[in-house]
Specification:
homodimer; alpha/beta; six-stranded mixed beta sheet; two-stranded parallel sheet; 9 helices; 8 strands; about 45% helix
Chain lengths: ~220, ~220
């Protein structure tokens, strides 16, 4: 398996951009074996809102948010050409070998194995890394709406600098919020997976990462 | 099985009211065997929004909305005392016999059997009636945010009259939108189930229906 690619839910805010990205993923799958893991986006946001109003248990909120990933996954399966949504890791593997784009719906695996802590520190980033480790993928690529990890929040600080490469230990030592979830570095440390954070508005960057070329992104080195 | 009770997602807009209702459901379960089926509410609304923006297939939107019912079910399981969320009809039956409140998460049953048409005409109302027929329940009770079915939309027409009782055929002949989904009468005709529409702000009405007493509601007679 070349890569598990997480498509961030925030990308759904721009249908034109998301469709372009999804078309490119289908082309990428002709050269590389990939599995797509959906983000949660608006579907997980609805859960966050109820979590605040109802003070849900961490476990319930976690499960509800994971169902939000299934929902976005079913949406992605509609717009990625030659794709197929599946709950099964082995089906995902077989589909990727046939140059299709498997969209992995994580709820059943996560509910059965329950391998990660139930908290909002664990989002689809960590779940994608977990799926990548289960599939023995070479890398996990987190496709999001920013260019990568910055020295500070680029939406608030225009002078923030993109960090092209950092180690997991450096990410663990980061004090401020980044574009990836808080649990991710712990999981990368354990799974020894290389992780890329890349902007979905430029799908050629994903192709470049898979081709081993330099591009605009952040590599979190295991 | 005395009744399958659908708790409408719109009731989640008032946490205090929903909690009172949920406490009463737990008391009701001590006298009657019930299974709760969740509505979709805000979780299904998020799907509707994306359906409009992405023109999803009817099947994808249907599945995504059903996952929204699972999400609301997990929320209900947090606030109904002595409840347990389950994907299994037989577990739900057993739980109800032990005076617990089973919250039935419908996605797995619906994805496996796919018994109803995939459209927005089929919502949690029809799914609750389907579950009630599978469980051979005596009745299905749709708990919502209005007193029942009116002669016209009570939110728009203050002179609308509550209809205490109507036949399925009369409901089928109704031209305007009602508070229940469009597919429901067809399903009630087939399953020969009595269906009650009742306001969740007055949980004593649900208790009255189960006790065979007269109360403010609409009975759709099979």
């Amino acid at each position: 398996m070349d890569a598990v690619i997480k498509v961030g839910g925030s990308l759904a805010e721009s249908p034109a951009m998301l469709k372009t990205l999804c078309n490119r993923l289908s082309e990428i799958a002709e050269k590389h074996s990939i599995v797509v893991v959906p983000g949660g986006g608006k579907f997980a946001d609805a859960v966050r809102e109820f979590d605040q109003r109802y003070a849900l248990s961490a476990d319930a909120a976690h499960r509800m948010a994971i169902l939000g990933m299934d929902q976005f996954g079913l949406l992605l399966a509609q717009i990625v050409p030659n794709s197929c949504a599946t709950y099964s890791l082995s089906d995902a593997k077989q589909l990727s070998e046939r140059k299709a784009v498997p969209i992995f719906l994580p709820s059943r695996l996560m509910f059965e194995e329950n391998p990660l802590e139930a908290s909002w520190d664990v989002t689809s980033d960590s779940i994608a890394a977990y799926v990548a480790s289960k599939l023995k993928a070479d890398k996990v690529i987190l496709v999001t709406d920013v260019d990568g990890i910055f020295t500070s929040d680029p939406k608030k600080h225009p002078d923030a600098k993109l960090i092209p490469k950092l180690s997991v230990s450096e990410l663990l030592a980061f004090s401020q919020r980044t574009s990836v979830d808080k649990f991710l570095p712990k999981l990368l440390l354990k799974t020894r997976l290389d992780c890329y954070v890349v902007n979905g508005a430029y799908p050629e960057r994903i192709a470049a990462i898979l081709a081993g070329q330099r591009t605009v992104c952040t590599l979190i080195k295991a």
